[in-house]
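User: These chains co-purify. Model them together.
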Amino acid sequence: MVFRALRAIAFAVVWAVSVVCAQATEFKTVTIKVGYGPGGGYDQTSRIIARHIGRYLAGNPDIVVQNVPGGGSLKLTKMVLGSEPADGSVIASVSEAMSYAPVLDPANANFDPLALQWIGSLVNEPAYCLTTKSSGIDTMDKFLQSDFLVGSTGKSSVTYIFAAMVKNGLNAKFKVVTGFEGTADILLAMQRGEIAGMCGVSSYNISGNRDTLNLIGTFGSGTVPGEEKLERFTARIQDPKVKEAATLIESALHFHHPLIAPPATPKETVEAFRAAYGRMVKDPAFLADIGKLGEMAVNATSGEEISRLVSQQQAVGPDVFEAARNLVK
Amino acid sequence: MDLVLTAIVEMAQPFRMLMLVAGVFAGLVVGVVPGIGGLFAMALLIPMTYNMDAYSAFALLLGMGSVNTTSDTIPAILFGVPGSVGAAATVLDGHAMAKKGEAARAFGASYSASMIGGVFGALVLAAAIPVMRPLVLYLKTPDFFAICAFGLSIVAMLAGSQPLKGLAAAMFGMLASFVGIDKIAGIDRWTFGQIYLWDGLPVALVFLGLFGLPELASLLLRGSIQGNAEKPTYAGMWQGILDTLREWPLVLKCSTIGSLLGAVPGVGIAVLDWIAYGYASRRPGSGPKFGEGNVRGVIAPESANNAKEGGSLIPTIAFGVPGSASMSILLGAFVLHGLVPGPDMLGKNAALTISMVFSIAVANIVGAVTCLVLTRPLARVAQVSAAVLVPLVVTFIVVGAYQTNMSAFDFVLVIGMGAIGMAMKELNWPRSAFSLGFVLGPSLENYFFLAYQISGWSWLAQPLVLVLLGLAVVGVIRQTLSWIRARNAGGPLPPALPDIVASAAMTVLALAALVTAAIGFPFEAAIFPMITAGLLMVFSLVTTVQTTLRWWKRGPSTPLSATSPRTPGEWSPATQPTMKGNLGIVGLCLALAVLILVVGHLAATFIFVAGSIMLLGSKSWRSPLVIAAATTVFVYAVFDVLASQPWPQPWLAGIRQFL
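Assistant: Joint model of the two components:
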């Protein structure tokens, strides 16, 4: 009798332990925080990810999206590094430029992008500089030697960083206008004839206006299927140190639209997110949803690969950092 | 014509009409509850449209977006709490009418004006379809600057009986709008190391605090919205509708203002309803003064803010440039449904574009009629005891505020703005002028620098810029002349001593802002704040000197006549000790804020509502509990189910977990 009771208790304990262990990797509700306001590319991709990724996580959790806009996602990145819970309940969608924010701005020197846990990214493709057909600027030589205006949003945005890189790295004559609301705004000002070009845009940003624009050159090593291969701006940079700095800035294009988790998130939780992300980006239902976003083509980069790229970024010498800072001034 | 028929046939399908009506009801709920705006709701609804066809999706989204400016007047009129930022101008006269027992009339006028304005906006959109693209391309960046500058000149109409204070208030608002990371140099201005402030002060919280809390204080003192025991009549509603019909020229003009300005990116709903209000206040008509329950002050902003939806779709459809914040979210829906804004929307997808016109028009009609049907029970709220109403409204303001960023700073900001609003209300600093400065400041600065970077100073000679800036200057001069003529008219003024303290404090604040901007910011980020701070300092210094002289001459006791016909504007002399009411409201808000942080928003709602109703003098113990339970269920339904979102863990749960 006693024996039987003991056996029942032992059984119960084993069962309870196994349940508890199973729960450790099981997700309840996961919040994807988005470093930008509602409506933009980061918000839209996050909402589509929220619709699908739950299926691939143990416990099939509810996924909620919350917008935390500020400073081009720098605000959210700082929150993820500092105050967000590291138990798998919060992950974040921030700009890939966060990987070198401390490099480019000494004011951010206290934050370590290597500490972030990278889950994966959606897009790996080059960015362009482009001009309106009416501007007459249709070759890279004209682009570098003509006197005209290039539009950008804020100083920490890719539209500014890549324009400044061309201007400073190749002594181009154009002037960069800052303060536009977004890429659609810049495109409209181009159609009005107020400015002639913009830099740092991906092909899906311009899908509706393709026939009125000249593509001048690219940043990054990837290619876009269906587009002719254009010259890379960095190929023209002579000074090896400046070239290294430019390549450093370009490297973030390999992991556009990344997801991150707080530094202290347990290893197995991060692994679970990475695995789920990897399976999600191959899911036809997910691809069909994301395919609705203009001509966005998924070309995912895994979290491990992003971590490797980021540590490469951080491994270069301080003089290259210095050169990078001067490039995007 | 074929296209119109196609669009109507497409929209006539039951599921699409059902989606439209569902959108309208969602939009009405979102409008009524302060704290959740159409913006947020649109972001929530978009994922629901993934599996719908484009017609149904836009019917749902536009149905929602079109009517939250219809129902946001309900809390504005009843409690003086703007249901969304677009209802702030309606508070001034709408709430004043409710206090006089004319809530039903104010509702009738506002819904009918909303409906006409909304349909008008839809027609403007329809008329713009063929000429949309050239129209949008015609306006250049300098024109946008000139439009904003013209908008700011409306401050002169809102400045009230002490114009210097009006101008100072506008500058104060502009100065507040510069807090955060600036767009040009990318540096942080007056954020005091707080990440919270990077994106500036959230406009929804500023308006909730500025307008909502001060009105609650006087509600608390009055005992009920209406103050007297007269039964509100249903007939008032028809009178309100007749008011709107009688004022048809005003309705059409303000609808035009709303739909045209709605198409200008950067001029949001919070701007254009003040411009419409300022415009209407120039000719108050036969009714009471503006700010004391003039029905024109309700009709003007309400027709303008519903007309905006049609207008702001113009640049969205034609170029994919959102005409307003909620349009930038709608843009996401375009992309999701494989639609590219631009020529296609006017060519092969024109039927869909026309169906949007149809959706906006029908949504406005359904929304207004629904609200009209609800007028009778709502008008009765005017007689409910303040002991019940105040805790309920405080709950929605505070929980709604917390929902914005889920940060304790949300409480600090909304209560702080409430305190500023109370002081401004007592001391005749017009909150309307503050609001207009606050919402226009960033656009003015940004468009100025864009125009300057693009074309140096030559843009000042462009024809439309000249016309608009000229109109602005003429308006200000005319208004200044009328101030000079009326300068010794007398009339009641706020008590001198607090007035001196406040304007002196404002002078010091302006000086501090001026110095920190000059020393700490690079030139392009400093110039606008410095000009604003400089003007604020001059205006408030002169006010301080004036008031001190007046106090010196007349002695410390300023005579306070009850009401005088000579004070235009939103201020009227306080007739009872308002300090007690103000402190009471701030105390209630603080108590609820702490409760939310400690036990979470649902438990806090229950404890707070039950506790404060009992505290404010309920005789039985059962009704407070019933009301508290119902409120908690409602808060749960709105903030957890309808707007499903993660709430931060309350402290108590954190401690329990720790143990």
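Confidence is low (pLDDT under 50) at residues 557-567 of chain B.
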